[in-house]
Write a structure and sequence with these properties.
With about 290 residues, the chain is of the alpha+beta class. About 20% of the residues lie in helices and about 35% in strands. It contains five helices and 18 strands. The strands form four sheets. It has a nine-stranded antiparallel sheet, covered by helices on one side. A four-stranded antiparallel sheet has the order 12-13-14-15, with helices on one face. A three-stranded antiparallel sheet has the order 16-18-17, covered by helices on one side. The longest helix has 26 residues.
């Protein structure tokens, strides 16, 4: 009996040992991921993101253009866009034969001398300093039920500014922060409610990153404030005093006064009514006239 038992006991022990060895790899600590994995999770830079968008836009333009198509993209162009879903603010582009300029109210101007225009069957692209500009002959709806004949994309600092364009440049037309006033009203109203000396006027407002809006006010007693608020006006995160020397490009031209009767225009001022897209009165714009 004991002679027959020992082989079975040895077999059982061997099987147990084999099972334990089979489990060893699963119990070993995992090796840290290599630098390649870490690099792949790093967010792309502005330059990388812009290069990818530029390549996609170029591919969408198709093959070479014939003479008739090239004629559609000769001369000067003017393009503009308003506050978009990503929180990017108003902008205006002027594309001339010898210079291109991107203007963003409150953020300044950027541009450069355009290179040769690259004509394709579905549009034209040109690089002007830090700007990569794409124009396409497509109907583009603007406010009040009107349309422009072209669409425009301007790549700058990793952002794709998209809007409508038309041929020719009007020197009298200039984009200001108030060009997207209806989109900013919820944020403006939330900030105006914080003013202690009323009526307060908005001197400039513009979209920031991550759905935030900056609204600068001049209260009735002359104190200037900056209000940081969500675009829907739900949350005001800051309401702080500003120094007299802290002024942004385009500030106070125009100023905006919400609702009520028209304010008296002082010397070198013009007062016009601001309206929503539906024609409802929003308040009054006070701009420089001389």
């Amino acid at each position: 009996m004991r002679t027959g038992f020992r082989p079975l006991r040895r077999i059982g022990a061997a099987l147990a040992l084999a099972g334990a060895l089979a489990l060893l790899p699963a119990c070993q600590p995992q090796q840290p991921s290599g630098s390649g994995d870490e690099a792949s999770s790093t967010a792309p830079t502005d330059e990388e993101r812009e290069a990818q968008m530029a390549a996609q836009q170029l591919a969408a333009l198709g093959g070479p253009a014939n003479a008739e198509t090239q004629a559609l993209y000769q001369g000067d162009f003017q393009a503009s866009g308003s506050l978009d879903a990503n929180g990017e603010g108003a902008w205006e582009l002027r594309l001339l034969n010898d210079y291109a300029q991107l203007s963003r109210p409150g953020l300044g101007e950027d541009g450069g001398v355009p290179g040769p225009r690259d004509f394709h069957e579905k549009g034209m692209r040109v690089v002007a300093g830090p700007l990569t500009i794409t124009i396409q002959a497509q109907t583009c709806p603007i406010s009040n039920g009107q349309n422009f004949d072209y669409t425009a994309h301007v790549l700058f600092e990793g952002v794709d500014y998209e809007g409508c364009a038309r041929r020719g440049v009007s020197e009298g037309d200039s984009s200001t922060w108030a060009s997207v006033l209806p989109d900013l009203i919820p944020a403006i109203d939330a900030c105006l409610a914080r003013a202690s000396a009323k009526p307060a006027r908005v001197t400039i407002a513009s979209a920031l990153d991550e759905g935030q809006v900056s609204v600068r006010l001049r209260e009735a007693d002359g104190d200037r404030r900056e209000c940081i608020v969500t675009a829907d006006g739900a949350t005001v995160s800051a309401y702080e005093s500003l120094s007299d020397v802290d002024r942004r490009n385009g500030e106070s031209d125009p100023e905006f006064q919400r609702g009520g009767s028209a304010p008296a225009a002082r010397h070198c001022q013009a007062v016009t009514e601001a309206k929503s897209a539906s024609g409802a009165s929003l308040g009054w714009l006070i701009s420089r006239s001389c």
